[in-house]
Design brief:
The protein is an alpha/beta fold and about 525 residues long. The protein has 3 domains: about 5-155 and about 365-385, Dimethylsulfoxide Reductase, domain 2 (3-Layer(aba) Sandwich); about 170-350, Rossmann fold (3-Layer(aba) Sandwich), CATH 3.40.50; about 405-525, Barwin-like endoglucanases (Beta Barrel), CATH 2.40.40.20. The protein has helices spanning about 5-15, 30-35, 45-60, 65-70, 75-80, 85-95, 100-110, 130-140, 170-175, 190-195, 205-210, 235-245, 300-310, 320-330, 335-340, 360, 375-380, 380-385, 405-410, 430-435, 445-450, and strands spanning about 20-25, 35-40, 70-75, 220-225, 245-250, 265, 275-280, 285, 345-350, 370, 410-415, 440-445, 460-465, 470-475, 485, 515-525. The strands form 5 sheets. It has a 6-stranded mixed β-barrel with strand order 11-15-12-14-13-16. Strands 4-5-6 form a 3-stranded parallel beta sheet, with no helix packed on it. Strand 4 (about 220-225), helix 12 and strand 5 form a beta-alpha-beta unit. The radius of gyration is 24 Å and the shape is globular.
Amino acid sequence: MYTNTTQAEIIMNKKENGMKMIVVDPRVTPMATLADIHLQLLPGTDGALALGMANIIVNEGWYDKELVQQYFHGFEEYKEYIKEFTPEKVEEVTAVPKELLIEAARMYSNTKPAAFMPSAAPVVHHTNGLQNYRAALLLIGLTGNFDVKGGNVVKEDSWVSSASGFRTRFLEYITPRPISEMKSRIGQEEFPVWMDLTYEAQAVHLPKQILSKKPYPITHLLSFGLNYRMWPGSTNMLNALKELDFFVNTDIFFTDTCRYADIVLPVCTSVERSEFKTYNNGYVIYTQPAIEPLFNSKPDSEIIFELAKRIDIDDDLMKEGYEANIDWVLEPTGMTVEELKKHPLGMMAPQDPLIFKEYEKKGFKTPTGKIECSSEVLRKYQESHDYDPLPTYRPPRSSASADPGLAKEYPFIINTGSRLPMFIHTRTFRLPWTKSLRPDPAADINREDAEALSIEQDDMIRIITPKGSIQVKANISDMVLKGVVSIIHGYKEADVNTIIDPYYTDPISGFPGFKAFLGKIEKVGKLDE
């Protein structure tokens, strides 16, 4: 809700018009307070919750039998596996009352159509994130809500992770030559499924490759707005940057990362440059700068295209500049930058016709052409990487279930990555008036936990993990479950990422486990003593 206010308005309007809503969140967020059902689960247990819902839906016969029969691969194997996720077992694992679980399964499966609204980070930022998400996404097909009006419709990205309803040459643009012709990407051996399914390297693995020099050394780095504090075990990433022979960074501000760069190229803000932007509703705009770039700053794009000319890159289009490249990407739409400039407030792009149930003609983009309960991509690496083809639930690697010995010393689940309403990611974090609303780093702790440890509001507490500790204020809150501590990232004086293992990642996706790791809290006092 904080980071997508336009989407929040749509949801609230639909809610007022009778839409039912289920929210799955470990915290009592503003969106959760609007929900008909709030499934407040322990961080990292989303997979068990989804498998439990599937268990109920299948047992009660609430699933789309025709779709399952024709288009599901590995359903019988999956059906057998979910039997162990009874409402009682799921309550034990997730802390969600079984009655709420059953009610949610009934509401989601029997409301037609129903939509599943995913989010970019919360579920996948766990060491079991990919399988958890698979378990949750299978519910869409199981209930017959895939590629139907009002359900979940798949659209290709039009531009930079925005599925705006029209086809461009974006994918062709970011992959100008076959990946097989390129040097192996960072994380290639460790995360082969990621490599099979995406065109990207795995940036979380970057420090490990720099430090190990395997499978090949990385000695020079050009980055745009790189922030080493965003890596788990962020000091490990900083140490990797120090190992480079040559490091160039660009940024609007002279950040902590810039202090370690050999060259810093200042970039201008969004009010000093033009930019092509698209939105999921089909709205597009080519923004116009309000002022000329100040000082010696330039747009990131200008730096990129100027470098392409200077190093004489083997790509003629790259030498033509930003607007020519945008025109090339937009060619299938008939739109051009010149046309967009005539609409300074933006315009609705011509939309491709929306065709539902395309899978009936084209199948699914999977090895079997079906919805894969049992993934053949994962099966390829079952022996070499211990990947399970089923969406199996394994608890977070740092959890009481996975490591009871560790949990005796570090009994709390530390959860990070949530946002505060006055900050748009980190873009307004440095503004004095927004920072003044919470000037000091703080952690939300449950009222019962605070009483047990004799902690009062604004007491200084120390959060400790096997990797280190940070000191923050205590914010006693009913938003978090007992046994969970939630902390906002971004405060460099209490950088929570420094106390996470640098290689605490999902073994399949490589994503960091920011959302659930074990720690303990100690009262320090009103002041740092």
